[in-house]
């Protein structure tokens, strides 16, 4: 018994669909190596770019973060910087970093003496247990840093 196979002509739309799918697959796989996560070295490098050769001092920043986050989808993070917030001495900016997220810098907050207090709260997504680092810059050129570890039990980025 002979089986007969009928061939159907391929139209232009099918060819475009196949080529488009191939191009999309090639593009997405070429972008995968860029999806690495930051580490402590990447955070240190970003901080170095931000402050240059200025000396960082620990203290004056209090990070408010849970020690254990049951769900990494929305982890509350806050900070308060002990500063007089006067024209002569005030916090200009605070930068938040995380050493296991895709991008080391998570958020930046900018202040002026009119802010009254250098304080902010936000939420961030964390894929796994990591350190949250806050760096505060003052108008006098001082730089302060604080670090808080946060243990994540369920990953927030698809984990």
Report on this model:
- This protein is an alpha+beta fold.
- It has one domain (40-152): Immunoglobulin-like (Sandwich), CATH 2.60.40.
- The chain has two helices and nine strands.
- The strands form two sheets. Strands 1, 3, 5, 6, 8 and 9 form a six-stranded mixed beta sheet that branches.
In percent, how much strand structure appears in the residues? Answer: 35-45%
Q: Give the tally of structural domains.
A: 1
Shape, please?
elongated
State the helix count: 2
CATH topology title: Immunoglobulin-like
How many strands? 9
Summed over residues and divided by their number, the pLDDT gives a mean of 87
Order of helices and strands: HHEEEEEEEEE
Structural class: alpha+beta
CATH class: Mainly Beta
Rounded to the nearest angstrom, the radius of gyration is 24 Å
| CATH architecture descriptor name | Sandwich
Can you tell me the CATH superfamily? SoxY domain
Into which percent range does the helicity of residues fall? 10-25%
Q: Largest sheet at a glance?
A: 6 strands, mixed
Q: What's the N-to-C terminus distance?
A: 54 Å
Low-confidence stretches: none
């Amino acid at each position: 018994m002979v089986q007969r196979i009928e061939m159907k002509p391929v139209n232009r739309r099918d060819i475009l669909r196949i080529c488009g799918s191939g191009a999309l697959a090639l593009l997405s796989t070429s972008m995968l190596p860029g999806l690495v996560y930051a580490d402590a070295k990447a955070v240190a490098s970003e901080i170095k770019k931000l402050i240059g050769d200025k000396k960082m001092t620990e203290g004056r920043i209090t990070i408010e973060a849970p020690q254990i986050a049951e769900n990494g989808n929305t982890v509350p993070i806050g900070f308060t910087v002990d500063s007089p917030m006067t024209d002569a001495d005030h916090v200009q900016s605070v930068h938040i970093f995380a050493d296991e997220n895709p991008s080391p810098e998570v958020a930046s907050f900018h202040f002026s003496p009119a802010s009254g207090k250098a304080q902010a709260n936000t939420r961030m997504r964390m894929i796994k247990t990591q350190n949250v680092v806050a760096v505060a810059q003052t108008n006098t050129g001082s730089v302060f840093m604080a670090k808080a570890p946060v243990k994540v039990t369920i990953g927030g980025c698809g984990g």
